[in-house]
Amino acid sequence: MSDVENKQVKETTIPVEEVVFSLYQSQDKIYPKSISGVFTNWRWVMVWLTQLFFYGVPWLEWGKRQAMLFDLETKRFFIFGLVFNPQDLIYLSFLLIVSALSLFLFTAVAGRLWCGYTCPQTVYTEIFLWIENKIEGDRNVRIKLDQSSLSPHKVFRKTLKHSVWIVFALWTGFTFVGYFTPIRELFVSLTHFKLSSWETFWICFYGFATYGNAGFMREQVCKYMCPYARFQSAMFDKDTLIVTYDEVRGEPRGVRSKKAGENKSLGACVDCHLCVQVCPTGIDIRKGLQYECIGCGLCADACDVMMDKMGYERGLIKYSTQNGMTNRWSRQQMIQRVLRPRVFIYAGVLTTLIVGLAISLYLKPSYRVDVMRDRAVIARITDDNMIENVYRIKIMNNAEEAQRFKIQATGDSQLNVEFEETGLAPIDKAEKLLMLEAGETKTMIIEIKVPDSVLRAGSYPIAFNVKSLSSQEATTEKSAFIVTN
Questions:
Q1: What percent of the chain has pLDDT over 90?
Q2: pTM of the model
């Protein structure tokens, strides 16, 4: 190739630019604006109800103990008048099923009500935003403060805000640990600097989680960490009440002055972006249903405020259904479609489970009896030519007061039952009475004998009857008497 041709090739060669693709999309910080309205008030009602319960219940007393205490050391859970042991795990299963069905029901009816009003992430974010608003100011003031250069005023405001956040977060961690360690004892240990290492760790850990999630991560938890946002669409349908924008009425949107009156060429939306500014997750509801929407309704409050200023009818953004918006149904027509068979099935199953759980808790016995055969020897011949079976009876007193129990063993008419006790638990042999203190568990060994050659080889039914003389409850546990050749 000649020099002229080489020169032409170099001149026609297009330089390749290096292109870098980022797998992470950086986002600007969201500064939610304060607003007032119906849904805002309901959110604060739920904040007060949930937090009064969370911070107040550990300080309540029930008899001589804390009203709600999950005592991991003794493996006993106290919930007001109810006492649960590890053997009562079935009730936790019922509770989880009820919670799941409740979530399905509420989501099928009105979308993400849990996320918008009672989720701890939502509640604590709202509290932290309120603190931030009181110390630094509303949205525009906070944006200006963050963009300003470092100054004594900025340092003071930021330090004060984070100090209040940290104190509140640590008190939240302290309250959380107070559900597992009696909170009054925990408070004394805290004031005397005698907290155990585990108590200190969990107070700091839960406090740090609250501080980080509600103070910094905020909407990121709802958008990227919470799985509910990802599978909510499976529980939605076109008759689910969701926060919607009335596109027919609002479009085409455009800015106009109040003095100009209603512009016939424009829709009701004045494109003020107030609905975006108040959104905790920073989305634009006018773009339709999005997985980031937590259904809080703050955008509806903001839009109603603007509609009132412009003199327009409220409800440009509101709770509605997709079918309702498409068919322009009235509120009554939408409610009729909301109460559909799917909702009634969820409600019926949920009601049945709740009633069953309530009845089960009401009939829950104050003690538990377990009968176990001696695993070492099925049956043996004693020195006095008797066939002997050995049983272990374990009695657990679930009540919060001492109880006396009467034990009896009964069997087949041909079975001559003799009752003997060998001393693992003190018992009145004459009356066959056993005394158990509150929450105490005792195990007895009972030997039952019959004369040899009276019964043929085989298995014979036998029952152990345990009656509480304190509560007059009675329990029967079945077993078998084994006769070998």
A1: 43
A2: 0.82
